[in-house]
Structure formats: structure tokens, C-alpha cells
Amino acid sequence: MASIPLARSGLLAIQPLKRRHCAECRGGPLTLLVIEDAEPRCLDCADLGHLVFLPRGDTALTRRAREGSGLSAVVVRFNRRQGRYERQGVLVEEAALARAEARCLADAEARARRRARDAVRRAAEDVRFTAAFADEIRRLFPACPEERARAIAAHASVRGSGRVGRSAAGRALSAAAVTAAVVAAVRHTDTPYDRLLMSGVPRGEARRRIAPAVEAVLRAWQRPGREDVAV
After folding, report:
1. Within its chain, how far is the Cα of 146 from the centroid?
2. Which of 18, 54, 173, 209 has the fewest Cβ atoms surrounding its Cβ within 10 A?
């Protein structure tokens, strides 16, 4: 298991995955605990029992609640799949949370308008970036059909997707990143790659089998003036 992280500021509380009991009062099983001297302590024994839990999700509320709370703690839980602790929320004073909620309600309309403006701005940025990505595909692969170039660019550049178009290299429109997006699209669309995977062929072997077909399409698309290539 990963080591318990240190909070960047303030205290740290843990949502345990296993049944744990307080080393001091023997109470439990604990839903939240604090590690002191390498042993679990309940919130009461750690002098945090008067705090309330605020789940993650509302950034403004969390920030305001922590700013107004004289005592607070970050709450984390271990993610077995990722092999790391992940933030779940914070513990704050109840009065501070109430004040933060009141402030958020007071300016909710203004924050909603700001979010709407930000969404419009991001959408416009996405349209421009996708168009630039498609243009770069057409520059590197002049015979790639325009519709395919636009489709590949749209798929690769979805915000928050983690795809190659949103990597640092993709945002910089590097030739390697753009080519990787084209290769991935050809692999899934123009070859039996997906069927091979579904039939149980290991990924490496499936890629080896369809590599000649991918290369054939890429070579054809690199020849200017030939958008009618059949694949």
C-alpha cells in the first residue's frame, strides 16, 4: 500500500478501507481516523470530533469553508486500483460551513453567469483548436479526405478525454502527436483491429497483424491530390 500522504496545509484524516479501531479509546469501527504515532485515532481523541465533513465537488464552498474555519483537515481515501490516496473532501467547523454556504448562495447567480461565459469561451477555443488540428492532419496527409481529417481531429481533441490531441504535444500540434491520432483512427476504422481484440488476440499481436494495412493507408494519404483512395 502507498504511504500515507502528508497534507500540504493543515491536518489529514483518512477514510479507512478496513475495519479500524481507535488505539486510544478502542472505539470503532471508524469511518474517519487520524494517524498519530503510527496508530489510528478517532476524531474525538484527535480533538477533531467537533468538525463536520464537507464532500469534494463545490470548489467555492470548500475554499470559503476552509478559509473561515480555524481548524480543518483534508480527508483522503486509498484507491486500490490507482495505488494512491485521493482527496474526498474536508473537515471544517460547522459555523464556518454555514457562513460559506450563505456566501455561496448570495453570489450563486453571478457565479452561474461566469460559468456560462467560461463555457462559451472554452467551446470557441475547442472549435479553433479542432480546426487547427484538422489543418495539420491535411498538411501531413494531403490525400486524407477532408471529412476524415475533421472527424479524426474532433475525436482526438475532446477536452478532458486524455486523448493524444489533449496531451502537451497534441496541443502544440507536433507532427508526432498528430500522426499518432491519425494512426489510431486508421487502426480502429480501416482495419479488423477491433475484431481481433474482441476475438481474444493479444493487443501486441493484433497491432502486428494490421500494421501493413495501416502503413498502406498512411502512404496513400501522404500522396497529394489523391482523396479517392479506397481502404
Report:
1. 30
2. 18
User: Quick one: 40 exposed, middle or buried, by C-beta within 10 A (0-12, 13-18, 19+)?
Assistant: buried
Q: How far apart are CA 38 and CA 33, in angstroms?
A: 12
- Closest-CA residue to 176 (of 136, 211, 206, 212): 136
How many CB atoms are closer than 10 A to CB 92? Answer: 25
Taking the mean position of all CA atoms in its chain, how far away is CA 209? 32
Residues listed for the chain: 231
30-75 pLDDT, tens digit each: 999 999 989 999 999 999 999 999 999 999 899 999 999 999 999 9
Strand order in the sheet with 11-15: 11-15, 73-79, 84-93, 51-55
Would you call 200 helix, strand, or coil by DSSP? coil
Q: What is the pTM of this model?
A: 0.54
CA distance 96 to 69: 5
Q: How far is CA 51 from CA 48, 69, 91, 125, 149, in A?
A: 6, 9, 6, 42, 54
Q: Which amino acid is at 15?
A: Q
Cell triple for residue 159? Answer: 477536452
